[in-house]
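In this section we walk through a basic example: taking a raw amino acid sequence and producing a predicted 3D structure, encoded as discrete structure tokens. The instruction is simple. Fold the sequence below.
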Amino acid sequence: MNMSIESIMTQESANPAYLYAVVFVDELQRAGLRNVVICPGSRSTPLAMAFAAQSAIRIWMHVDERSAAFFGLGMAKKLGKPVALLCTSGTAAANFLPALVEATLSHVPLLVLTADRPHELRDNGAPQSINQHRLYGTYAKWFVDVALPEATDAAFRYIRTTAGRSVAAAQAIPPGPVHLNFPFREPLTPEPIPEQILPPVDQRDLIAWQGRPDNAPYIDVHDASPGTPDNKTIGNVLRLINEARRGLIIVGPIDDPILIEPLVRLSQYSGYPILADPLSQLRYGAYNRSMVLASYDAFLRSDSFVESVQPELIIRFGTMPTSKSLLLYLKRYASSPLVVIDGNGGWEEPTQLASQLIHANPTAVCRDLINALEQRQTSAERPSGTPQAWLRLWQDTDKITRQALQHAIYDFEEMFEGRVFSELTHLLEDGTTLYIGNSMPVRDLDTFFWSSERHIRIMGNRGANGIDGVISSTLGASAVASNEPSILVLGDLSFFHDLNGLLAAHLYELNLTIILINNDGGGIFSFLPQAAHPQHFEQLFGTPTGLDFHHVVEMYGGRFHRVENWEVFRKAVNLALHNSGLDVIEILTERTSNVKMHRYLWEVVDQAIANHQ
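The resulting token sequence is shown next.
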């Protein structure tokens, strides 16, 4: 930790631009950057002064930007490691381009840092301001228009992650230039700004502010995609497992049946429970699912439980699960090591909490870890005792939560949206494909569609999480598996967005059952802060349409069923799944009461957990 960050910790007011720059530069040196070529300028002052305060990075000053960039190019080519370039805004940045062209074509890692005017001074005649967005075009392998500086924990986690990612990206195969464009508002020098009050030291996320202990990088990136990581990387993860008795395995939306068995074995050997997103395919199937927890979205809403379960290690496979309560849990324990293992080769880490990101084949990583853990079982290195109490606590809480929800869900006289999924748990046959709409349906699926020994394949459009095109996507999946039952659950706005998609069912005689949850608008907004502003809520967010979908379904040759109780619902689903063609089963719900029923269930779960503690 350098003295600049240490002095920051005791301040009560701050210049966000300078603090932001200091934290960024601190993380660059943790990631291994040792040289920066700086061209003089005003707008780049926060970064220039932050580099000057960082003794681990050597400064090389050059007055001419074109020469400076080629100087850095030669240095990076000789070292085989990234070298940073820094300049002010305007044509100064444009003069870096020739060297970047050469760096791209000769695969030289450069980290290009350009200062810029803030957004309010762009494209309106402000001096020394040009369009620097993707200024270098295809000659930058990665570009970021960096967020405006803030003196907050979230901003510091973001800028540390961005620093580590940029250094890793510059040297990832093939090496090349990475461009980060920094907008800075005045004042640009380090003097504190009285109105920018920092939280007290004991309320700050020290990892975000000071960085990780022992000068470790905020995020350590290992790129072995699509193969197996080296022994050192596996050894580092194994060491973390050996040292952590209280661990978790989190699995996001991964549609890879081959991965299920190794994940379960890894969980069994480590003693870590698996928190499995419904699209992970881990919740359903004829295998030992005792390590797989499906009710965590509900019980992680209980403060009393969350306070008692601080993890020592978290290993995540794939993208983040849907659950908001899981994300808040991870943020609460941001200091706990989080290892992300992802085989897609991208950057699937939106939390900005990960300490390691391993680009590798997840199945290969699991098997390497399992082999090492098997050897540990017969070696003198085996730790005394196993984390049985930790595992049992999570398993018991999952069971208590599921039982509390199963009992309380029958208390409602009105049609409750979440009950759709608890009913489907018993209704769907082995081999069914369940496609799920976004917004509320996928969240209710997470909480109320419980584990089952039947093989149910869960699918959804969770890449961009949009509500458009879901009907067409489901029919496309149905078209290549016409002998398997297919069912889609979605909301009325999502249904409206893709009504034209029903034509495929008619043209190609496809089989599909659609469960339409119709609350006449955007139900998810009733759970969000917007609902606290009722004056314009319905107009801007609720957006009721008042549509009757009966006639449009029949126009496309489908059968329409509106159900008003669960007995009729069960009969309609059973009949539809054995019909050929298109069936739409509509359930009418009310948004305000739906929110009340959800919140009642969270209270029931919280009380059930408290009674057990």
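Looking at the output, two observations stand out. The two ends are 41 Å apart (CA to CA). The CA atoms of residues 445 and 609 lie 22 Å apart. In the next section we compare this with other chains.
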